[in-house]
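pinging the channel bc i need a second pair of eyes. not urgent but kinda urgent?? the chain im working w is below, pasted from the shared doc
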Amino acid sequence: MQNKGAIMDRLGHFVVQELPMPEMKEDQVLIKIEYVGICGSDVHYFHDGRCGSFVLDEFPFMLGHECAGTVVDAGKKVSHLKVGDKVCVEPGITCGKCEFCKSGHYNLCEDVQFLATPPIQGCYERYLAFPADLCFKLPENVNTKAGALVEPLATGMYAAELAEVTVGHTVAILGSGCIGLMTMLACRARGASKIIVCDLEDIRLDKARQLGADHVINGKTSDVIQQINMLTGGRGVDIVFETAGSKVTINQTAFAARRGGLVILVGMSAEEELPYNFGQVMAKELQIKSLFRYVNMFPKTVAAVASGLIPVEKVATHEYTLDQIQQAFEDSIYKKNEVVKAVIRID
């Protein structure tokens, strides 16, 4: 077996090269990675060298954390997985000892080792050794391409769960990239009665409409808040999700929500400090919640995909090989009018 991976040797540039085989521990499995998604955070690190407060300042560095593949070896302490099992990976290894891990909020663990969050290397490589208890078996009817999309769907499902979306709710989603679409699919699955999706690119809005949005708004050609008010009879929406990580859309959330409504901040901005209208928040008695990744979402996310309730694979619009990763990232940045969600196939 020969390992191969894509390494960033400097900002904005990949080198595809042979790599040492990873050493598997007795509580780990060795996975032949088949698909890895390109996440918005990967794009931020590639283009900006940072994502929110996380800064990439040392090279070489490997990106990628949305992955799935087939188990090719298992450590002697592993009993629930075997060679040949298809798995997706929850990419954060937490300490299990801190107050956050012990209270069930392991996503807030300060000692987490999360793939592709500096200084932890990612998984744009052919083989990955990873703790078996963070690898989730995919049912026979779920392929590894869909498996690689379980991770971003887990974020969307966690957002919808945090918001307690249910039948009768009117929802606005600001941002129709991958996470926005995953959040929309989760809200639809939970019974939201009216979903409004906003973006700047028609291709993303077309994808949102295809996947179940009731209304779409292009912020380039329309006043988003005015259109939301028109669609809700001036009331505003019950719940507004910000999924773009843009200072413009983050600021719009307070204006889109109804009085007594709820704002869920999902998107991670490249900037740490952002303007926000707290006058609107206080006058409307809004609630604001934020989320960081997800907690205990992978089993139910896999189940939702396996049942057919959420057609996650339809979110991916472009597929590239590992050798095409430079082009894949550049297309994701500079061809937003064409690429909604790209995945890398690892041969």
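so The chain has two domains: 3-149+316-345, 156-290. and The radius of gyration is 20 Å. — does that match what u expected or am i reading it wrong
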